Amino acid sequence: MKKWPVIGVVLAILWLFVRGVAFEPVPILGEFLIGLAFGLLIAFSFRKFYTTETNVTRSLKAAPYAILYVAVFLKELATANIDVAYRVLAPSMPIEPGVVVVPLRVKTDGAITTIANSITLTPGTLTMDYDEETNALYVHSIDARDPDAIVEPIRTWEDYALVIFDEEGKPGDPVPEIARERPEVSSTRSDSELQEAEQPDGGTRSEGGEGHGN
After folding, report:
1. Burial letters for 193-210: b for 16+ Cβ neighbours within 10 Å, e otherwise?
2. 3-state secondary structure at position 19
3. pLDDT tens digit string along 82-139?
4. 143-151 contacts: CB < 8 A, separation 24 or more?
5. At 128, is the secondary structure helix, strand, or coil?
6. In whole angstroms, what is the distance from residue 4 CA to residue 13 CA?
């Protein structure tokens, strides 16, 4: 089945939510037809930017996971806003920033981009980099004392993304191990620790405290 008509219908449904239509048959039908007209036009105009065919059965299977993804994201968004506001207003300013490496199970560009953007859109965390060789994200957090708390929602998003983007992996699959090739950011370390690890001459200090000479 061609994909652009399906996208047009999805845009029409989104239009109903944007308009906030009263739960009555006539207004819903009227706004849906308006949304469908514009949705089909937009979907047809941009049809070259996505695959021409779609699997309706797979799309229906992925739809509940997409809804769950959005629901979890909104929950994390609200929680993170409250948490960041507390840290800003708290006298002690409980902030200990650091970088956490998050190896991924998803492999498609769409899934990786969606997860990376979700991290960045959540207050308190930022996707700094993506390592294509190890398939891992480098995530900066406002408080990296508990890496598991940072990674937990990302793993939930990833479980849903595995289904949404029709990945080879399945939810619950083990996380791949990666080589720690970038020690300055590969473990959870605060900014102060990273600064202390640098020598005055620009070199870096090993974990044992000895500098690396030329």
Report:
1. eeeebeeeeeeeeeeeee
2. helix
3. 998 888 888 787 788 999 999 999 998 888 999 999 999 899 999 999 999 999 999 9
4. 143/87, 143/94, 143/95, 143/96, 143/97, 144/96, 144/97, 144/98, 144/99, 144/100, 144/188, 144/189, 144/190, 145/96, 145/98, 145/188, 147/100, 147/188, 150/100, 150/125, 151/100, 151/102
5. strand
6. 14
CA–CA distance, 106 with 169 (Å, rounded to integer):
7
pLDDT of residue 102: 95
What distance in Å separates the CA atoms of residue 211 and residue 214, rounded to the nearest whole number? Answer: 10
176-185 pLDDT, tens digit each: 876 544 444 4
**Exposure of 92 in the CB half-sphere (CA atoms within 13 A):** 2
Tokens of 186: 């590969």
In the block, residue with structure tokens 């970088």: 99
Distance from C-alpha of 169 to C-alpha of 123, rounded to nearest angstrom: 29
| Helix (H), strand (E) counts: the chain | 7, 3
**Cα–Cα dist 141/133, whole Å:** 23
Q: For tokens 């239009």, what's the residue?
A: 15
